[in-house]
Amino acid sequence: MANSTRSGNASKTAKSAQTKVNAESLPVDIEQSVVTQKPLYDAKALATTSTRDLVPLMPTHLSAPGVNLGAYINTVHQIPILTTEQEQELAHRYYDEGDVEAARLLVMSHLRFVIHIARSYSGYGLPQADLIQEGNLGLMKAVKRFDPNKGVRLVSFAVHWIKAEIHEFVIRNWRIVKVATTKAHRKLFFNLRSLKKTNNQLTLEEADAIANDLNVTRKQVLEMESRLTSYDASFEAQSSDDDDGRYAPQLFLEDGIDPAEMVEEADWEENNTSALIAAMDTLDERSRDIVEQRWLSEQKSTLHELAAVYDISAERVRQIEKNAMEKIKEAMTIDSVVMPDDI
Question: For the chain, what is the total number of helices (H) and then of strands (E)?
Fold first, then answer.
């Protein structure tokens, strides 16, 4: 019994020693592959594999969404989704080696995610194809900056770049005049309508609640609400402008008046008015009143009416008027000739 126990222990000792010798005789890299898990990206194993062969079902050509949006979406949804291993292999080839073909495959395999994100911005009245195009630009920027060594999937990293490009496009094209110019304005632009409980104008209490939720001021909330509810005025005349009592800015420019001529005319009228007042002051009271009643009053008096007022003949009123007009003309002529330096 004792002999059998000793022989069993000896056999176990011999097997463990053999295992130790075999492990020590293995190469280091093979030993580590036995102990640890195989990495997602093995450059040596894929050194002889072309980039195109990594995703053989990827199409080589794809039309722009603006040409035929339906056909574009159908084609994009036929593009296979990359596995984690394929994504890592392609990302490393572009990040480490600058392989442009690998970057193209990464972009094309994630185009379906751009379509999904762009659909959530369809309520702004902008063409869906344009939103997708802008999202594709964000996806390409994300692929350019993606670091596969960070341990995250490309879609998680790219979603922020895709939304940023779409946000910028929406803000730039939603109105002729840009409505969001600061970070707070951008936050309010994309969240204010969803936070409003009704379509009515915000009360001060509702504005304060939204301001607290978005970490902005009440003034900024009310200002953005005013911008969102306003409309763009057309520069050219519309068919309904006459009925609404509005005039397009184009109508104010059609006469082609030179601003310099307008200023000159205004100065000329002002100088003539000043000269007329000064000339009227040189007349006696009766002559001045006759001129005012005959020429400056809204309801002009006749010669006979003035003759009855001053108890003189109508002919005498005409003579006084004529003499007064000659004095006024002479005084205004002298004022127009005399320069300020000659006074």
Answer: 17, 0
Q: Please name the amino acid found at residue 65.
A: P
SS3 content of the chain, % helix, strand, coil (to 5): 70, 0, 30
3-class DSSP state of 337? helix
Name the one residue in this structure whose structure tokens are 């104010």: 252
Torsion of Cα atoms, 35 then 38 then 43 then 44, to 10°: 50
- Residue 126 and residue 131: Cα distance in Å, rounded? 7
Nearest in space to 281 (alpha carbons), one of 316, 339, 327, 322:
327
pTM for the model stands at 0.49
Helix 183-195 / helix 154-173 crossing angle, nearest 10 deg: 90
Q: Please provide the distance, in angstroms rounded to a whole number, between the alpha carbons at the two ends of the chain.
A: 147
Q: Do residues 324 and 288 touch, judged by C-beta distance below 8 A?
A: yes
Q: What is the dihedral of CA 251, 253, 256, 258, to 10 degrees?
A: 140
- Which residue, 117, 123, 114, is CA-closest to 64? 114
Cα–Cα dist 69/53, whole Å = 29
Q: What stretches of 123-240 show up as alpha helix (H) in DSSP?
A: 128-145, 154-173, 183-195, 204-214, 218-229
How many angstroms separate the CA atoms of 171 and 141, rounded? 19
283: which 2 tokens? Answer: 């007349």
Residue 47 per-residue DSSP state:
T
Place of tokens 């600061």: 182
What pLDDT score does 190 carry? 67
Classify residue 281 by its DSSP letter: H
- Return all residues near 249 (Cβ < 8 A) that are at least 6 apart: 233, 235
How far apart CA 33 and CA 49 sit, in angstroms, is 21
What is residue 10's predicted lDDT score, i.e. its pLDDT?
47
Could you tell me the two tokens for 163?
A: 């939304």
Q: What pLDDT shows up at residue 32?
A: 39
